């Protein structure tokens, strides 16, 4: 094992408080939130089972992804009509410029706070 892998390998959780594995070396039966979502699952309130860690090549800082047990994961909740309506209202608010009150086809950049056309003026 290289030094980076050795630093990220703590299967007992003695060093980091939770079992830690190098990137792509997690045991079977564990998945990240994204991996669960791709299977149509969610963590469902369970605690973190382990974590995957890798060191950034650029900064040397650790990057961590939490792992959850697939067997204890629950199915993703389906969207109700009320949730879809709330989602649509939220997206309209994100696309509406507070200065000119025009709904744009893109989300208003948070860095500007106004649409691109108003920012040019």
Trace the largest sheet across and list its strands.
Answer: 1-4-5-2
Question: Radius of gyration, rounded?
Answer: 21 Å
Question: Helix amount, in percent?
Answer: 25-40%
The portion of residues forming beta strands comes to: 15-25%
The parts where pLDDT drops under 50 for at least 5 residues are: none
Sketch the topology as an H/E string, one letter per element.
HEEHEEEEHH
Shape: flat
Number of strands: 6
Q: Please outline the major beta sheet.
A: 4 strands, mixed
Tally the structural domains.
Answer: 2
Mean pLDDT across the residues is 92
What's the tally of helices? 4
- Class of secondary structure makeup: alpha+beta
Q: Measure the end-to-end span.
A: 58 Å
Question: Describe it for me?
Answer:
The protein has about 120 residues and is of the alpha+beta class. The protein folds into two domains: about 5-75, no CATH class; about 80-120, no CATH class. Helices cover about 25% and strands about 20% of the residues. The protein has four helices and six strands; from the N terminus they run αββαββββαα. The chain has helices at about 5-10, 35-40, 80-95, 115-120; strands spanning about 20, 30, 40, 50-55, 60-70, 75. A four-stranded mixed β-sheet has the order 1-4-5-2. Strands 3-6 form a two-stranded antiparallel ribbon. A hairpin with a 6-residue loop joins strand 4 and strand 5 (about 60-70). It starts with a helix and ends with a helix. The model has no long low-confidence stretch (mean pLDDT about 90).
